[in-house]
Inverse folding.
């Protein structure tokens, strides 16, 4: 049994392994965050040392982006893409397994730093340079020992896993679709995964290159980021954010993908404006390659550069707005079934609206000179990554859990989880907008009582209690439902994409007979022969 | 969501209110300097536009979620399938695009207003150097060097006294941020950045490093003291002279000059000529110690010298391992450095 | 099914080459960024001379591998083996040329990766390219061995062609590197 999971090349099992390890890392990263919230609840607190605090936020950020966001996205893509396009597996099943194990090795390597990072000089254990690891703090002069090397190598190695999976997805989506499924008839989920994969292929290598340069600096005495020899420390920021900003969309587009499957099904309506949804996503993908320096408004770029990046960043609001409006158009005139997956998607829509608008504020470069590196930014990107992405991930888990396990998750527990999370999340991160505007910089392990930040920090910390409760309920719901959940059947939501046409859980070969489709919603066509989609597409 | 929306609206008054108490919060919405006002005005425009969008789109969303809930009885029938609509989609592409253009133009204007690469003629220039984890301020014209507390003249209706801060770093990247005076700007090794302030009210303003710079990033605080008209020049004069020599503490001074203190610190007129740590020539004219981490008085100074790491964990200044008597003598000497 | 597999292979190889292109683009951009910024010598113009012979070898190897593929598809195994080995020899000649150049730079000009920004960016960029040539040579050698043992026939043309794509890519990267390092950079 266990051996089956280790040697498997089945896309469904690998997908589950990805998601499961992502959730495991989510719990670890969450604990790190909770400790930080505890420390910041009181001015001048010394619950943890500054060194520990710096490691905590470094590991928290690195974990959540690279070891939670990425594997959950690849996990869902792995599981669902072949099912949705009517294929028996991914294009390269063994490469797929390789990708997962390499990713996991990278993650374990990063966490091994707690044990092994001490190095020869006894300086530090886990990395403590922040998740974007700005030079020259990462150079040998300021980061002795091996903690930074663990950061570099852990990410570099898991990056190879990500790249192989992205290539695999591109090949699968382009080459393995069932008869009748032209590109224009793919479910939106598949389209978004194609775009995300292409983005990964283009933007991860510059990070790999930057990390290679950093290693050359650290081990061979090269001077890429060495000011003493004329090198530029800002260069690191350009390379990192050329990866780092598209990375945000790489993480968020899968959230859009889940929402684009869930919202139509629970509104009982076809997605509104499918071509515009695809076009807007492509636009987001392309424009996201030209916005990276909005992370760098305070580094002293030229006026024209600042103006350019402010403009390009604001421009992204347009395709993003199109997506929100199209989801709204889907809901409009529908018959909304308020099941848990839909609840999470509605929460996502509101919170993503807030995230998008604070994003516009940050894009206004002059305003950003006040906001960047303050808690306002922390609030903003948690509205993206938690309020939007994590909410859609929970929605997706509630939506596809019946397909994966054959059993339903409890609706009652789901509602509890949702409302507790909405409450806790908005308390924690809503308050951070205020602490930021009150001048609180991010990444400080303590602050003076006279700064007026304590109340807002305490509100943030109280929110954590509700979020923890929500996650506990979620874990309990999964554990309970695996054994005692209501039996789901093949198609519990009366949905329309191909994965619901096979059994729950699907057999290893996915489909007895490979399907043939004529529209984007093949199961709608089956269920409504009098009114099939292909007449209107 | 409601509370998020509420919070967003409540931000402006909340931030302003909190800034009124004492030194209070370094709040973005309590500007006291021209650049901070420019930013605040842009911010209010952007926030107002965003608030309108939040309430219109959010309201529409909330209304549709309630309005289009499935009701008992119609579960069997599917609603009309609408695949899209060209005109509507065009509208919700164009309207946001127009809003974006407006916000972009406002932003571009403020960038051109605020960003200066060099000090315009006639401006006071101060060189700001970020160190792990303290600030060095140099007044090149006056030959004055001080640390952690930046002194500036106020601008009045009759006499405008803008100040250009030239930012650099001695080690890693730092960021100079005093929210009530200006936006932040990074201090970067190997690169010179500029920032300007034109303080409109005398007073003390707090700020701190805003780019993670290592262990004591949180302990890299700073104060800006804006002097009423005329007083800045007096302060500058008082800083220009060499250190006070008080024969009463001659043995303390002799001891100080024999310790390793002098490798890092400078006291003008003595052999202490280090540049790694803050200039101590007029140490006691400063109100805080260890880059704003503690009050600067004899008692704290003594604790600081005995074990800097205790007051500021991770600080680069080592304990000098002085005996209690020697400690008293050195502190007594330092206390005279007005 | 086999049509699908071939299409998937092509897409997969294109994905790989996309990531590689992005990787090299990063190093090329950084190289250009640092051109002329070395604080100390030696400067590129003083010590670099365009390795025309090496370049000709590498470019020629792209031609020979195209001919090899043509021979393979038409079932002419003997010609395929000869042309493939010729490709490997040309690639090896290129690597040898790089090695000689590096030796000259290190021994006679004292230029190492630590010397200045030029050394740093030069060895990183050219080194990563040489690494890719080495990987390509290893893979080509495996195919050549299999070919000599008679295991490669027209039925294997598809996968071998994927390898030839990689080899062409390495060639194209070299054209870019050559232009940047020996042209723009000097």
């Amino acid at each position: 049994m266990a051996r089956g999971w280790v040697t498997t090349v089945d896309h469904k099992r690998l997908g589950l392994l990805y998601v499961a390890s992502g959730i495991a890392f989510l719990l670890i990263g969450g604990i790190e965050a909770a400790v930080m919230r505890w420390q910041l609840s009181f001015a001048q607190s010394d619950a943890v040392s500054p060194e520990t605090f710096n490691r905590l936020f470094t590991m928290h950020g690195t974990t959540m982006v690279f070891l939670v966001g990425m594997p959950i996205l690849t996990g869902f893509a792995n599981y669902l893409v072949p099912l949705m396009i009517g294929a028996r597996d991914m294009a390269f099943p063994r490469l797929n397994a390789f990708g997962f194990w390499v990713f996991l090795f990278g993650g374990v390597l990063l966490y091994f730093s707690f044990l092994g990072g001490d190095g020869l000089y006894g300086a530090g254990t886990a990395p403590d340079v922040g998740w974007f690891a700005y030079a020259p703090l990462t150079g040998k002069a300021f980061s002795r020992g091996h903690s930074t090397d663990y950061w570099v190598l852990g990410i570099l190695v898991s990056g190879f896993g990500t790249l192989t999976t992205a290539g695999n997805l591109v090949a699968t989506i382009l080459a393995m679709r069932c008869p009748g499924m032209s590109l224009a008839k793919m479910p939106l989920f598949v389209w978004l995964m194609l775009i995300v994969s292409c983005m990964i292929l283009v933007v991860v290598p510059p990070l790999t290159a930057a990390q290679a340069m950093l290693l050359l600096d650290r081990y061979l005495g090269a001077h890429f980021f060495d000011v003493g020899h004329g090198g530029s420390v800002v260069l690191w920021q350009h390379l990192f954010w050329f990866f780092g900003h598209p990375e945000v969309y790489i993480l968020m587009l899968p959230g859009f993908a889940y929402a684009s499957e869930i919202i139509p099904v629970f509104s009982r309506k076809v997605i509104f404006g499918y071509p515009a949804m695809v076009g807007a996503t492509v636009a987001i993908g392309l424009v996201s390659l030209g916005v990276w320096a909005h992370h760098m408004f305070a580094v002293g770029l030229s006026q024209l550069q600042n103006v350019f990046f402010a403009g390009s960043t604001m421009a992204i609001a347009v395709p993003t707005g199109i997506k929100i409006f199209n989801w709204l158009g889907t809901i409009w005139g529908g018959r909304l079934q308020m099941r848990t997956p839909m609840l999470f998607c509605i929460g996502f829509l509101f919170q993503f609206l807030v995230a998008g608008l604070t994003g516009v504020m940050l894009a206004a470069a002059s305003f950003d000179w006040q906001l960047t590196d303050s808690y306002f930014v922390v609030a903003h990107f948690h509205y993206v990554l938690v309020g939007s992405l994590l909410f859609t991930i929970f929605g997706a888990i509630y939506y596809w859990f019946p397909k994966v396990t054959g059993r339903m998750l409890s609706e009652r527990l789901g509602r509890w989880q949702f409302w507790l999370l909405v409450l806790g999340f908005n308390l924690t991160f809503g308050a951070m907008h205020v602490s930021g505007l009150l001048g609180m910089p991010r990444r400080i392990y303590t602050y003076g009582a006279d700064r007026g930040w304590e109340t807002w920090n305490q509100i943030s910390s109280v929110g954590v209690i509700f979020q923890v409760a929500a996650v506990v309920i979620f874990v309990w719901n999964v554990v309970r439902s695996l054994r005692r959940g209501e039996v789901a059947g093949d198609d519990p939501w009366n949905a329309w994409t191909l994965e619901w046409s096979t059994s729950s859980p699907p057999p290893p070969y996915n489909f007895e007979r490979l399907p043939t489709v004529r529209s984007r919603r093949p199961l709608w066509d089956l269920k409504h022969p009098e009114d099939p989609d292909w007449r209107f597409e | 969501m409601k509370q998020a929306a509420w919070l967003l609206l409540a931000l402006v008054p909340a931030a302003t209110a909190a800034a009124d108490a004492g030194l209070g919060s370094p709040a973005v919405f309590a500007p006291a300097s021209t650049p901070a006002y420019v930013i605040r005005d842009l911010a209010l425009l952007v926030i107002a536009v965003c608030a309108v969008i939040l309430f219109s789109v959010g309201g529409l969303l909330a209304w549709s979620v309630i309005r289009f809930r499935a009701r008992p009885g119609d579960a069997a029938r599917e609603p009309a399938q609408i695949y899209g609509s060209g005109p509507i989609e065009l509208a919700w592409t164009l309207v946001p695009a127009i809003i974006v253009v407006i916000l972009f133009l406002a932003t571009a204007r403020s960038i051109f207003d605020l960003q200066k690469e060099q000090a315009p003629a006639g401006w006071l220039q101060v060189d700001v150097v970020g160190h792990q984890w303290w600030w060095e301020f140099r007044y090149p014209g006056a030959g004055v060097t001080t640390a952690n507390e930046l002194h500036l003249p106020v601008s009045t209706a009759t006499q405008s006294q803008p100040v250009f801060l030239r930012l650099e770093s001695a080690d890693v990247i730092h960021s100079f941020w005093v929210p009530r005076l200006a936006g932040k700007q990074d201090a970067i090794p190997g690169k010179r950045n500029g920032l300007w302030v034109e303080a409109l009210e005398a007073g003390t303003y707090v700020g701190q490093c805003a780019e993670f710079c290592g262990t004591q990033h949180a302990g890299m605080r700073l104060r800006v003291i804006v002097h009423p008209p005329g007083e800045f020049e007096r302060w500058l004069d008082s800083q220009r002279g060499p250190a006070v020599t008080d024969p009463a503490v001659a043995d303390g001074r002799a001891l100080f000059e024999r310790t390793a203190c002098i490798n890092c610190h400078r006291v003008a007129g003595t052999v202490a000529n280090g540049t790694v740590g803050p200039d101590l020539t007029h140490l006691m004219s400063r109100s805080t110690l260890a880059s704003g981490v503690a009050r600067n008085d004899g008692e704290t100074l003594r604790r600081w010298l005995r074990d800097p790491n205790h007051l500021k964990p991770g600080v680069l200044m080592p304990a000098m391992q002085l005996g209690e008597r020697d400690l008293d003598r050195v502190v007594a000497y330092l206390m005279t450095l007005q | 099914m086999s049509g699908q597999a071939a299409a998937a292979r092509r897409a997969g190889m294109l994905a790989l080459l996309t990531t590689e292109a992005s990787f090299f683009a990063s190093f090329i951009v950084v190289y250009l960024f640092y051109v002329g910024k070395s604080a100390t010598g030696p400067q590129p113009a003083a010590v670099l001379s365009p390795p025309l012979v090496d370049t000709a070898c590498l470019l020629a190897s792209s031609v020979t591998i195209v001919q090899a593929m043509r021979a393979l598809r038409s079932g002419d195994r003997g010609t395929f083996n000869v042309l493939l080995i010729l490709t490997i020899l040309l690639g090896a000649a290129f690597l040898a040329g790089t090695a000689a150049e590096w030796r000259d730079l290190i021994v006679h000009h004292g230029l190492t990766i630590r010397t200045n920004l030029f050394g740093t960016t030069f060895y990183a960029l050219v080194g990563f390219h040489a690494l890719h040539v080495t990987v390509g040579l290893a893979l080509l050698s495996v195919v050549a061995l299999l070919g000599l043992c008679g295991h490669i026939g027209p039925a294997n043309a598809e996968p071998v062609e994927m390898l030839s794509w990689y080899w062409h890519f390495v060639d194209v990267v070299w054209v870019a590197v050559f232009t940047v390092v020996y042209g723009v950079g000097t």
Remarks:
- Chain A has a mean pLDDT of 95.
